[in-house]
């Protein structure tokens, strides 16, 4: 399912609401300090806003992120043969000193330019 404008809107609203809940919690703590009261718990409206915002952010991220892959490492490797495991282009070596040790090596002008 592609990310639509709705999913992005839900994500943005969720983040804004989550930041507002964090700001409200900080304001509540400073209010308690000013009035010299002890902190026991946050008000229920801040807790509900935080949990609802968290679920909205999770919903938006899951739809924007795209398709998830399996956690199993072997899931991507099940359809590959043994030859494809050994075929790693980063290990290819074309200019190496083994050609100078070969009795059949013919030194040509073209091979010196590639070094």
TrEMBL record:
Subunit: Component of the ER membrane protein complex (EMC).
Does Acyltransferase count among this protein's keywords? no
Species of origin: Nicrophorus vespilloides
The protein in question is named: Membrane magnesium transporter
The gene that this protein is the product of is LOC108557703
May I ask which residue range the UniProt record assigns to the signal sequence? 1-26
Show the taxonomic lineage: Eukaryota, Metazoa, Ecdysozoa, Arthropoda, Hexapoda
Q: Which family does it belong to?
A: Belongs to the membrane magnesium transporter (TC 1.A.67) family.
Entry membrane topology: Multi-pass membrane protein
Q: Where in the cell is it found?
A: Endoplasmic reticulum membrane; Golgi apparatus membrane; Early endosome membrane
